[in-house]
Amino acid sequence: MLVFADGAATCEGIGSAAAVLLPLGYDETEVEDSVTFSAPTCSHDMEVESIVLAIENALKYYNSTAVKKQHEALFILSNCQAAIDTVINLLFSHFVHPSVDTIRTLLRQLQDMSVTISLTWISGHTGIEYNEKADQLAQSALALQPDHQTKTLTYLACKSLILRKINKWWQEKWDRLPTGRVTHERLPTVGSS
């Protein structure tokens, strides 16, 4: 089975995760799913949540299928190598991430069903049909009311929030300062090169 996973986040910290599941059996249709998280979050955390969503949907599929094979292969495809690395490192460390227990539980359940899981990086925004579909699903989910409350702020979400506040403050100050106007004309946005 292939599952394409993608996440998205707004500047305000609202996030979404999406997964498009493609069973490789004859005459089976794809399954699309997405969830929206309330603020504050960041795109990295949503990419991790999209992998969690992909695993959850695969588990639902394997539990509902009538024909059981001795061995199944699950390929989760994400265009975020950092999220893949985070999930892999979570499994072998004591790093605290809100999804670590969920990921471990889901993986144990899949292992008990003789499902091997491969997390694979794919290039994003390059016309891969189902990856683009997962991206569009995650983007459109941002417009929906959040159905999950973000309970824990991760380090990356905190860093992202702080950077946004600092850049906003810096931009406002840069726009108001009477000095440096020639430079301001060439570089009106802080943090741009």
Order of helices and strands: EEEHEHHEHHH
What is the total domain count? 1
- Average pLDDT number: 86
By CATH's scheme, which homologous superfamily applies? Ribonuclease H-like superfamily/Ribonuclease H
Tell me the helix content: 40-55%
Count the helices. How many?
6
CATH class membership: Alpha Beta
Structural class: alpha/beta
What is the approximate shape? elongated
CATH topology grouping: Nucleotidyltransferase, domain 5
Summarize the structure.
Helix content is 45%, strand content 19%.
Structural commentary:
The chain has 193 residues and is of the alpha/beta class. The chain is built from six helices and five strands; from the N terminus they run βββαβααβααα. The protein has a single domain (2-153), classed as Nucleotidyltransferase, domain 5 (2-Layer Sandwich). It has helices spanning 43-64, 81-91, 100-112, 129-141, 155-176, 181-186, and strands at residues 2-9, 15-22, 31-37, 72-78, 115-121. It has a five-stranded mixed sheet, with helices on both faces.
Keywords:
45% helix; alpha/beta; 193 residues; 5-stranded mixed beta sheet; Nucleotidyltransferase, domain 5
